[in-house]
């Protein structure tokens, strides 16, 4: 596949080869990562990368759009079908620009957004002080009432929303292992005149595969997402509007020309390919298995007495407080498990007393290994090995785990149509 790079640029070729080997042999547990199909990768490397296509199908600023219009229309139609939306904007380059574009479409500078507290699972773009967004908009937060069950404090949310009158009530997260009570979000949003928006970046594939609830069924107006996590598509973003033409028009204008220039047409083609894959009934089985596998891993940690944020999982990810459970920091746990061939990420936990660069938690999940065909039994074994490594930490234990991880990996090669 990389013949030309190999002949022309050995340094880049070697790095790509190295990464491919890493992805083939290690066990990828970062819950926001996945393997995309070769069809998706072919679209990404297609000639569509050569084309400027500012504007939208039928209304572009450059000529020669016969094929780009077909591709973008296919992506939009498939996205709408997949998520039950009337409108789709498939141009955001990633999840962050999707959220930024959505904010600017719906708000004026100084307006208020209410989102999940970052240490309780929210995302940087939901109002972390390090982002420029906080210089423009006013962010207020809601939290979990009970970190051990994951229950959100909806009464507090209602009271704070009534006081501060946010224009957007934002649901969604990047490190929260439970489903939200969508009806409560929508009710509170309507009570205070806010637009209910859900950032489904992490669970888009689970929604598409009907393994979890669809926020649109509860009246959310807008969903923002990435396409490369559980949805198993190219690195990119998207904004879906349930049924308001007015909102959809504002979003289109905000993404282009408000925020971005030329859309990445090769990525949009890859999104279209990924959406077709996700519309196939087999994707429903995949999505269900992702959750079953994550639950199997959580159960092993719970049986060992570990503290899991929210007490388990109902989706694709697990957030373990390894500092309390095993007296190891998230950073050290990440490094140690990496030595055993397991890739995951350190992660802050709710109201963490440790610093973000070496927090109390680790976050892991099953989208990638489920693509490789890992089942509940395999996932149980991976979790057991993780715990052994976290507890003993010596060279022999790490070496033994590494060998078994390599065996497991060998038994479930990345499918040929994926790598
Ligand atoms: N960086 C992503 C994640 O890992 O969850 C969120 O943008």
Can I get a quick summary?
The chain has 419 residues and is of the alpha/beta class. It has 2 domains: 41-279, Aspartate Aminotransferase, domain 2 (3-Layer(aba) Sandwich), CATH 3.40.640.10; 281-411, Alpha-Beta Complex (Aspartate Aminotransferase, domain 1), CATH 3.90.1150.10.
Describe this structure in words.
The protein has helices at 3-8, 10-25, 38-44, 66-83, 95-106, 133-136, 154-164, 182-192, 204-208, 245-259, 265-279, 282-303, 322-326, 330-339, 367-371, 376-392, 395-411, and strands at 27-28, 55-56, 59-60, 87-89, 112-116, 138-142, 144-146, 151-152, 168-172, 195-199, 222-226, 237-241, 307-308, 317-321, 342-343, 345-347, 361-365. By secondary structure, the chain is of the alpha/beta class. The chain folds into two domains: 41-279, Type I PLP-dependent aspartate aminotransferase-like (Major domain) (Aspartate Aminotransferase, domain 2, 3-Layer(aba) Sandwich); 281-411, Aspartate Aminotransferase, domain 1, CATH 3.90.1150.10. It has a seven-stranded mixed beta sheet with strand order 4-12-11-10-9-5-6, with helices on both faces. Strands 13-14-17-16 form a four-stranded antiparallel beta sheet. β5 (112-116), α6 and β6 (138-142) form a beta-alpha-beta unit. The relative contact order is 0.15. D-serine (DSN) binds next to loops.
């Amino acid at each position: 596949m990389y013949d030309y790079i190999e002949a022309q640029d050995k340094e880049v070729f070697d790095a790509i080869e190295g990464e491919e080997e890493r992805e083939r042999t290690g066990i990828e547990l970062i819950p926001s990562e996945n393997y995309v199909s070769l069809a998706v990768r072919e679209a990404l490397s297609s000639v569509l990368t050569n084309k400027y296509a500012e504007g939208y199908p039928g209304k572009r600023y450059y000529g020669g759009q016969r094929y780009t219009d077909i591709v973008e229309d296919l992506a939009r139609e498939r996205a709408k079908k997949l998520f039950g939306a009337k409108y789709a904007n498939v141009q955001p380059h990633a999840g962050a620009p999707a959220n930024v574009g959505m904010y600017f479409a719906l708000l004026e500078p100084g307006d208020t957004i209410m989102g999940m507290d970052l240490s309780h699972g929210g995302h940087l773009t939901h109002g972390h002080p390090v982002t420029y967004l906080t210089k423009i908009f006013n962010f207020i937060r809601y939290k979990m009432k009970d970190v051990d069950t994951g229950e959100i404090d909806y009464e507090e949310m209602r009271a704070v929303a009534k006081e501060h009158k946010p224009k957007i009530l934002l649901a969604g997260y990047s490190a929260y292992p439970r489903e939200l009570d969508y009806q409560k979000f929508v009710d509170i949003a309507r009570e205070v005149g806010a637009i209910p928006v859900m950032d489904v970046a992490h669970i888009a594939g689970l929604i598409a595969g009907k393994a979890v609830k669809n926020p649109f069924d509860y009246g959310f107006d807008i969903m923002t997402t990435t396409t490369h996590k559980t949805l198993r598509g190219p690195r990119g973003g998207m904004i879906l509007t349930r049924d308001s033409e007015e909102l959809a028009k504002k979003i289109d204008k905000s993404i282009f020309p408000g925020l971005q220039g030329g859309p990445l047409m090769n990525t949009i083609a890859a999104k279209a390919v990924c959406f077709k894959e996700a519309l196939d009934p087999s994707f429903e089985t995949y999505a269900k298995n992702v959750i079953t596998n994550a639950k199997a891993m959580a159960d092993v940690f719970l049986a060992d007495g570990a503290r899991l944020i929210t007490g388990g999982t109902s989706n694709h990810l697990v957030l373990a407080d390894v500092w309390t459970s095993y007296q190891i920091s998230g950073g050290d746990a990440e490094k140690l498990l990496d030595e055993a061939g397991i890739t995951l990420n350190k992660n802050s936990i709710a109201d963490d007393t440790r610093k973000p660069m070496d927090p109390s938690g680790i976050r892991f999940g099953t989208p990638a290994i489920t693509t490789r065909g890992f089942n509940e039994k395999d996932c149980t074994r991976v979790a057991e090995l993780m715990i052994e490594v976290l507890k003993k930490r010596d060279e022999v234990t790490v070496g033994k785990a590494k060998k078994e991880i390599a065996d497991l990996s060998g038994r479930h090669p990345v499918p040929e149509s994926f790598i």
